[in-house]
Amino acid sequence: MEFKNINTMRKLNNGVKIPCVGYGTFRTPEDVAERAVADAIEVGYRHIDTAAVYGNEEAVGRGIKDAGINRKELFITSKLWNTERGYASTKKALQDSLDRLGLDYLDLYLIHWPANEKQFSADAKRLNAETWRAMEEMYHEGKIRAIGLSNFMPHHVAELMETAEIKPMVDQIEVHPGWPHTEEIKKLQAMDLLVEAWAPLGGQGSSVLENETLQQIAARHHKSVAQVCLRWVLQQGVLPLPKSVHVSRMQQNTDFFDFELTPDEMKQISALRDLGGQCADPDEVDY
Ligand SMILES: NC(=O)c1ccc[n+]([C@@H]2O[C@H](COP(=O)([O-])OP(=O)(O)OC[C@H]3O[C@@H](n4cnc5c(N)ncnc54)[C@H](OP(=O)(O)O)[C@@H]3O)[C@@H](O)[C@H]2O)c1
Prior knowledge:
By secondary structure, this protein is an alpha/beta fold. It has one domain (9-270): TIM Barrel. 39% of the residues lie in helices and 13% in strands. The protein has helices at residues 30-43, 57-67, 87-101, 117-120, 123-140, 154-161, 182-190, 212-221, 225-234, 247-252, 263-270, and strands at 9-11, 17-19, 23-24, 47-49, 75-80, 108-111, 147-150, 170-174, 194-198, 239-240. It has an eight-stranded parallel β-sheet with strand order 3-4-5-6-7-8-9-10. It has a two-stranded antiparallel sheet with strand order 1-2. Helix 7 (182-190) links the parallel strand 8 (170-174) and strand 9 (194-198). It is globular and about 55 Å long. Bound molecules: NADP nicotinamide-adenine-dinucleotide phosphate. Residues 24-26, 49, 112, 150-151, 172, 198-204, 209, 224, 226, 241-246, 249, 252-253 line the site of NADP nicotinamide-adenine-dinucleotide phosphate. Belongs to the aldo/keto reductase family.
């Protein structure tokens, strides 16, 4: 498909439309998030990504109100934190997020991380299935327009599908130069999930933006390294979620639709390793 700008719509497997770039809010403190989200909407973002664990949903909600845009024109995502897994607590957690955001529905709600066997042994599968059953019911009730996953690798999705009635629409995973997840992306896309990239610039404190290979490619296209990262994500059919609290960078991160990386450049970027970022293995995390 042809992407013209950050609000070119993609279609999820349930027909819901989603702007092809989202604005991230991880590590945006409560006292900054209201202004940052209002600025991002002013810059042109219509897709906002937050999570209960970011501790900023109230401020994100105020920023959305300040922007004065019709709610229907916005696409708002939040995520269920790990301590709230399970049928009853998932239902309560969604309502809590809606209350904090001051919204009566979400466009997308994600399970933030799969329960893993390292922490839950044989119970992990049951816990994920119960959480998903609550997500399915809330979807049927119309409180969420789409439901999905985050940090689920293809084997977690396959396991969930053994009991799921509704196929997840989205999987949001860590994708940036140095941590490309190339094979996983292909598998998830083959399962008809839209893959979203968190930390598409490597996240705070990584060395992605200083990488020489990326700098050379960026110079060739008269673009910044951040723009090259976002283009590399987009050209894989993945939806990037860049975060910045600075208006000039918010703007820069919308401007990557006027150039194309060659197949060779795509390969070169995908082959980079060890540039920092969280590089978290969902089966190994302790949270
Ligand atoms: N599902 C998950 O488990 C998960 C995990 C992490 C993140 N996420 C989501 O994904 C979003 C993006 O990830 P992220 O925030 O970790 O990292 P990111 O977007 O890859 O990088 C953000 C960092 O890059 C800086 N930056 C942004 N644009 C820049 C530019 N054009 N030039 C130079 N520096 C730039 C930002 O600084 P300034 O803000 O100071 O400009 C910030 O330090 C999050 O905000 C969140 O919504 C999800």
